[in-house]
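In this section we walk through a basic example: taking a raw amino acid sequence and producing a predicted 3D structure, encoded as discrete structure tokens. The instruction is simple. Fold the sequence below.
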Amino acid sequence: MNRCVFVSYSQPDRDTAFELVARIEAHGIPVWIAPRDVSPSADWAAEIIDAIAAARVMVLVLSVHSNDSPQVRREVERAVNRQVRILPFRIDDVLPSKSLEYFLSSQHWLDAFPPPREPHYARLCTALGAILGATASTAPVAGAVAPVAATPPAHDATELARLEARLAEHVGPVARVLVRRAAAVAPTLEDVARRLAAEIDSEPARLAFLRAGPGGAAPGR
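The resulting token sequence is shown next.
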């Protein structure tokens, strides 16, 4: 998966999002967008996380719909955690909701109104070209030797399941992917728990998650 731009949008804005993708790709810039680029029978959450991690820029189609979308908020949060640059593209005259404002407070956005949208798409493509050109130096050097991956640490499956169940209360089904990834690199269960706690927005909830530790009871027990 080698995509330069990830497009985040709410389902009611699907037509606009795919129209935007067509304009960007016409400028020779690779784009990843769901569901088009989700592999058949793939783990949807894992595919989205991988695509965000592989992106250099996230274009957020900002509208009244995406403002209230938990899925969009999670994608933006993952982009921030991965230090992926976010470029909001406003198709409605709205300000980011409180749930998005925290992540977008330092971002500048492009407006896609008033119509027609073609000039706004052109400005977006120009902005993306400038951003990607400026970050090209961070791309891997051709021929470079990748480090040898370490053997993943072994963790108690029951404890990981408990961590997943507790994390899912805060982030939803994506918890399964986050636990799997944390467990692959964290040497101890305590380290796994610390990595997972960072995915929780609320500080009181994050502290409660950490206090419970990897041995904390699953929900309902």
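Looking at the output, two observations stand out. Residues 5-138 form a domain with the Rossmann fold fold (CATH 3.40.50.10140). Residues 137-150, 217-221 have pLDDT under 50 and may be disordered. In the next section we compare this with other chains.
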